[in-house]
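Lecture 7, part B: from sequences to assemblies.

Below are the input chains for today's worked example.
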Amino acid sequence: MNAAVGHDQRVPPRSGVGFELQRGQSLTVIDPEGCQVADLLAFARGDVREVISNGRTFDYEETLRLTTGHRLWSNRSRVLLTIEDDTVGCHDFLLTPCSKATFRHFYPDKPVHRGCFGNLADALSPWGIAEDDIPVAFNCFMNVPVANDGSIAVLPPPGKPGDRIVFWAEVDLVIGLTACSAYASNGGTFKPIDYRID
Amino acid sequence: MNAAVGHDQRVPPRSGVGFELQRGQSLTVIDPEGCQVADLLAFARGDVREVISNGRTFDYEETLRLTTGHRLWSNRSRVLLTIEDDTVGCHDFLLTPCSKATFRHFYPDKPVHRGCFGNLADALSPWGIAEDDIPVAFNCFMNVPVANDGSIAVLPPPGKPGDRIVFWAEVDLVIGLTACSAYASNGGTFKPIDYRID
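Predicted structure of the full complex, as structure tokens:
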């Protein structure tokens, strides 16, 4: 049994984990210190070519601002996760996981990090999921306002210590989850993420 | 040589085409009658696992409203296409291609159509591209305003007869292009799309 069933588990700063979530289980993602983003991916365990899709989700949910009651849809038009509870109401599904390439682009003076993209690829490799299989993640607690002219910004996340979002698994899933590694996304410092399965 | 080199070619209503575009060539997508959307996909010809990515593009271009001078980036953080000219300035990169599933969801009283998703999969199959390889397309001329609360709408496209958008190929590409099949996206009627390569 996954050690996270009934117990909080910690994702250390700038790292990621992969695990299975069964249909009917809930996954709680917690921001234990506040102001920290967690990138979440969900693949169908039966065929990992099926994965959450921002475009299908925006289309069916008719909004970019996803919170309690909204569903995360797959590229095959199936609901993989439903958001059961959400104490923040601020998440992003527009932007791809940070990566070596995004570090070089946005932070040319900082050390290059493999970012959430590298952390997810590494954590998901036991299920045969490779870099090219990684789409836009659901970025829990990420603050990406869209201005009236369509321009976007990455601002510090508004989460307070203990804030959480809870997902209900509609099918058996493989989950990838990170404590995000990018400077702007996390207000300049890197904190852990906690999660539990119930 | 592709018959579209130097000559307008027509994509009939509710259909799609696939073709190769060489580095340094430009692709002009034309709305010949006005009020019609064209879904565009671009894959790297050398390895079709590399494809345009809305998330990478939003991240690097820092806007949802892409027009002249903006670039379409791949999942591998490479520029595949640059927008050279654009007489409309209204396009969408949020929503996935219409499909049998979206017809059943949004138009339960209408005949089910395979939509741009089916048309793209069929047109791109000679290059080994399958349904699961189809991400969010760049939807030329599509009108998807984002409200302040994040909600989105699909409104009639504002294109007038002869409006166009021109893309410059930064690498050798495989292109998928449709005349979109969904009611709301095209103001309720289905018109052709023209294109040419120069």
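Note for the exam: The two ends of chain A are 12 Å apart (CA to CA). Keep this in mind when comparing with the next example.
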